[in-house]
């Protein structure tokens, strides 16, 4: 079976600026695939090219075994798109947002109404079907946007930062719905800069930085490849954490000094902490935790803030 | 059905939610302008224009001007909203629609709005007994023509600006002068030469002249054909400009 999304050396330039700098991607049917990266990494530009609303500057891109430049409308007929910024129609009711959008796909009115009701139940907005969109909460609007992306029963659902700006309850509800879709065999492609989101939803992901893919794999394998199993976080009662760094030599595979704490990347956190105490160092606080995707992410893309 | 028809349908569903706010002004505005200009100003212009009573003479101008105003109203704020505020164009571009469908569907809705406004005006004008010929029915297709000839380039302009402060420029330097110097309120013969050229270059005067011929039952002659062709030129050029600007903003 050919990949649903196939990219080789995919490039997107805007004038002199290269947003996407030669990436290779393959997404298989039924997969939940994530683009992870800081702001400006090229995630959204990649998503827009996959969504066939942004022609690639160079490289190979095939979606559903078709050419986005030639078959844009035919490809888009089989995609569901949940954009980063909501573009719901605030004057219309919740149900009308789905039925009018369904019509763009040539879906007959009666089918559109039936599907709208099913989808509103699915995203738990059934009771708000007749109300206007304007007063809905951020989480409700997001769920409605997701429902709208499903109105044509798409083969691939593209989600650009699906939970950015939502409160924790709303995020978990969105994740739960997306997980249900995944279980139904829908192929999900999402971008995120939330590590927990990537760990929750993605079977496989790529980490992007500066338009390039810097790592690829399952969340678990990325942690194994790019981090140790555990991390010890030490805070010393001083202005200058760096002064302690040399005293910690050899304890971890890697030591990272931050303005407020020192991170030790180690296989066994408790052993490492015992060694710290054996060296008569007394941190004000010490925390042993499992390494996560965030450690991988910060290791690969750096801690410098990109704005 | 062509995909553009789905876009038209979407705009009509939206209109069903909002038509009440515009309905009153659609009826009251023609009434007020007729009373103000036709009867008020007309009271001073006792000789009429070219042997026609001032009210009868000004009504076709006001009708063409209404078509233009409605078209500009629809091709500015709602279009900018589609790009910047509601961002509905981007939702449509993500569906299996082409830029031509997004643009054509919205333009079709604008022509519907023009027809609603102009029909209301024609009804009021008929009630005042100012329509002198059955040819007056021709003002409906004519208003679609001037509506398209103004909406399409206005959409191209709106698709090129980042915020609504640029729309004020359009109304101040395009709509207002066009309304004043296109033979709506007085014959353009009284204009000095440079302004005469402005009147000829802009689309409104051509529509006013045709509309006037229709409601007064005059033969527009060969000049009428020239008007038609010139307005069609504005429509075609406007369409390509708007398509280019929409493409640049939606597909990047």
Explain what this protein looks like in three dimensions:
The complex is a heterodimer of chains A (307) and B (252). Chain A has 307 residues and is α/β, with parallel strands linked by helices. Chain A folds into 2 domains: 214 residues, P-loop containing nucleotide triphosphate hydrolases (Rossmann fold, 3-Layer(aba) Sandwich), CATH 3.40.50; 64 residues, Alpha-Beta Plaits (2-Layer Sandwich). In chain A, 35% of the residues lie in helices and 26% in strands. In chain A, the strands form 3 sheets. In chain A, strands 5-6-7-3-8-9 form a 6-stranded mixed sheet, with helices on both faces. Chain A has a 4-stranded antiparallel sheet with strand order 11-12-10-13, covered by helices on one side. In chain A, strand 1 and strand 2 form a beta hairpin. The longest helix of chain A has 16 residues. The radius of gyration of chain A is 23 Å and the shape is elongated. Chain A starts with a strand and ends in a 6-residue tail after the last helix. Chain B is mostly helical and 252 residues long. In chain B, helix 1 runs antiparallel to helix 2 and helix 2 packs parallel to helix 6. Chain B is globular. At the A-B interface, helix 2 and helix 3 of A face helix 1 and helix 4 of B.
Distance between the termini of chain B: 28 Å
Q: Compute the number of strand runs of chain A.
A: 13
Q: What best-fitting shape of chain B do the alpha-carbon axes yield?
A: globular
Quickly count the helices of chain A: 11
- Radius of gyration of chain B equals 18 Å
User: What low-confidence regions of chain B span 5 or more consecutive residues with pLDDT below 50?
Assistant: none
Give the domain tally of chain A.
2
The helix/strand order of chain A is EEEHEHEHHHEHEHEEHEHEEHEH
Strand content of chain A: 25-35%
- Number of individual domains of chain B: 1
Into which percent range does the helicity of residues of chain A fall? 25-40%
* Separate helix tally of chain B: 10
Largest beta sheet: strand ordering of chain A = 5-6-7-3-8-9
Give the mean pLDDT of chain A.
92
């Amino acid at each position: 079976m050919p990949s649903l999304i196939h990219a080789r050396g995919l490039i997107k330039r805007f004038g002199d600026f290269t947003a996407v700098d030669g990436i290779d991607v393959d997404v298989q049917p039924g997969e939940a695939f994530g683009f992870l990266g800081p702001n400006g990494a090229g995630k959204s530009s990649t998503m827009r090219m996959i969504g066939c609303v942004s022609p690639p500057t160079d490289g190979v891109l095939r979606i559903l075994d078709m050419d986005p430049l030639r078959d844009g409308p035919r490809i888009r007929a089989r995609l569901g798109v949940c954009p980063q910024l909501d573009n719901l129609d605030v004057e219309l009711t919740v149900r009308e947002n789905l039925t009018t959008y369904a019509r763009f796909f040539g879906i007959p009115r009666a089918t559109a109404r039936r599907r709208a009701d099913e989808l509103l139940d699915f995203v738990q907005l059934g009771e708000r079907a007749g109300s206007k969109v304007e007063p809905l909460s951020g989480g409700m609007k997001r769920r409605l946007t997701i429902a709208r992306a499903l109105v044509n029963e798409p083969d691939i659902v593209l989600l650009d930062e699906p939970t950015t700006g939502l409160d924790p309850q709303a995020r978990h509800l969105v994740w739960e719905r997306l997980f249900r879709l995944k279980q139904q065999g829908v192929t999900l492609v999402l971008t995120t800069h939330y590590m927990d989101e990537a760990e929750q939803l993605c079977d496989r992901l790529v980490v992007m930085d500066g338009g390039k893919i810097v790592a690829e794999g399952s969340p678990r394998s990325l942690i194994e490849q790019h981090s140790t199993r555990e991390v010890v976080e030490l805070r010393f009662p001083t202005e200058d954490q760096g002064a302690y760094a040399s005293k910690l030599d050899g304890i971890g595979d890697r030591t990272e000094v931050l303005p407020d704490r020192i991170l030790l990347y180690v296989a066994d956190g408790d052993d490492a902490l015992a060694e710290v105490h054996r060296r008569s160092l007394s941190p004000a606080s010490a925390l042993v935790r499992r390494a996560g995707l965030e450690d991988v992410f910060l290791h690969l893309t750096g801690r410098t803030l990109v704005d | 059905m062509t995909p553009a028809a789905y876009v038209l349908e979407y705009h009509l569903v939206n209109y069903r939610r909002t038509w009440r706010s515009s309905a009153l002004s659609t009826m009251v505005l023609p009434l007020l302008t007729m009373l103000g200009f036709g009867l008020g100003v007309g009271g001073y212009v006792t000789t009429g224009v070219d042997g026609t009573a001032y009210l009868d003479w000004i009504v076709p101008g006001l009708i063409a001007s209404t078509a233009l105003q409605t078209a500009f109203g629809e091709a500015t704020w709602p279009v900018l909203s589609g790009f910047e505020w509601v961002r509905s164009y981007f939702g449509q571009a993500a569906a299996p629609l082409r830029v031509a469908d997004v643009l054509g569907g919205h333009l079709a809705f604008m022509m519907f709005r023009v027809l609603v406004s102009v029909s209301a005006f024609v009804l009021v004008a008929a009630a005042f007994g100012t329509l002198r010929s059955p040819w007056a029915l021709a003002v409906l297709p004519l208003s679609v023509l001037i509506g398209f000839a103004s909406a399409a380039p206005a959409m191209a302009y709106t698709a090129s600006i980042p915020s609504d402060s640029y729309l004020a420029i359009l109304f101040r330097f395009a709509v207002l002068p066009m309304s004043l110097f296109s033979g709506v309120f007085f014959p353009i013969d009284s204009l000095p030469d440079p302004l005469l050229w402005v009147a000829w270059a802009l689309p409104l005067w051509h529509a006013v002249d045709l509309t006037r011929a229709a409601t007064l039952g005059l033969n527009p002659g060969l000049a009428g054909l020239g008007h038609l062709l010139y307005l069609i030129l504005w429509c075609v050029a406007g369409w390509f400009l708007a398509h280019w600007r929409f493409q640049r903003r939606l597909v990047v």
